[in-house]
Amino acid sequence: EVQLVESGGGLVQAGDSLTLSCAVSGFNVGSEDMSWIRAPPGQGPTWISAIAASSGREYYSDAVRGRFTISRDDAKNTLFLQMNNLKPGDTAIYYCAKGPVGGGPRGQGTQVTVSS
Questions:
Q1: In what order do the strands lie in the sheet with 78-83?
Q2: N or C: more exposed end of the chain, with fewer CB within 10 A?
Q3: Where are the alpha helices (DSSP H) in 21-110?
Q4: Cα–Cα distance, 2 to 4 (Å, whole number)
């Protein structure tokens, strides 16, 4: 059974950092393209980052490039999202997903709230 479980969200102030984790079971995180998407309050989800399975190449949306870093730990079968210099506009529910654009199975999400 495929399962993705996000954690690490919380309430922080602008300029703070957070690291989100996504524990994966049912497939190997290193063998699949993986992505992060987020849904701001009252809006649908948008893609923000992906990591390619074979090359490990990282991809970012313009909104987060330079502040967020996607990574994975194959031994722990876990995907990460390091978020630095957080802004109020980053407030959203964050989801990890199988696949490069967030269209595959995803977790239940973790809430990130950034106060000004």
A1: 3-7, 18-25, 78-83, 68-73
A2: N
A3: none
A4: 7
pLDDT digits (tens, 9 = 90+) for 44-80: 999 999 999 989 999 999 999 999 999 999 999 999 9
Give the chain's mean pLDDT: 97
Of 11, 52, 10, 47, the residue nearest 32 (C-alpha): 52
- Rg of the chain on CA atoms, in Å: 13
Q: Cβ–Cβ contacts within 10 Å for residue 67, how many?
A: 15
Give the pairing of strands 34-39 and 46-51.
antiparallel
